Structures are given as C-alpha cells and as structure tokens.
Amino acid sequence: MTDPEKLVLGDKSVYPSEEILFSIIGDKKIVWQKIMDYAKEKYDNITEEWRYYNDGKQWLFKLQYKKKTVFWTGVLQDTFRITFYLGNKAEPVITGSDLPEKIREDFVSAKHYGNIRAISIKVTGTSDLETIYKLIDLKARIK
Question: What's the CATH fold of domain 3-141?
C-alpha cells in the first residue's frame, strides 16, 4: 500500500466517533452520511459497528443487514474505502447487472479467498453513490 492508501485509524485508544471520522474524511462526510441514510431507510435491521483489529492494527467499520455483513470500511486520509465480499454465486448477478464495466471486470478477475472475492471502492465523491447503492442492494438480496 502506498502512503496515500494508508489506513489512518491505527490508535486503539481513540474510538472513531463521528467527529473524529468527519475530521479525517473531510468533504466525503456527505457521501458517508448518504450511504448510511440509504442503508437505514431501505433496510430494517441494519447495524453498524466499529471494531479495532489487532492483526491490521486498525479500526474498521462494518455495516450489517440482519446478521450478514454488507460491507467493511477502512478510513484513509481525506476519504474512505468500502469493500464488499461476495461469494462465487454472485458472479452471474454482478456480470448481468448494470454496475460499471470496470467493477464487473474487476470482480471476475479478482483474487479468490476460498469462494469469496472482493469489490473495493475508494470513495472520490457523490459520483460513487449510485454504484455503492447498487452493491448494497445486491449484497442484501444474495443469499
């Protein structure tokens, strides 16, 4: 990972409150809020969790629908990265979707971790929202 890609919530003693989070991600705050609002408005039983992981020495955010993890988020300076982990059975759904071609291609060629592959999006602005919303919906409906 290059320095600009370095996750920044490495202090175990500092819980990532909204104030701390928003001071780091800056103008991406609006994107964060829109993603959270979308998930909460569209789905019942959404839960949010920040947890410190000793293996990566980082705080990571997890959004869950019922008991299924929808996505993980790592915080970078001035932005954040959302990662969706999807099983092989998601491939026909993703390749047949109207997700951006790059996302579909990246998923098909992504490294397998057992039966799971990842789709990661480094948030650049509100232009990423439509893709993120589609991935939330896709993840919520795939069994």
Answer: Aspartate Aminotransferase, domain 1 (3.90.1150)
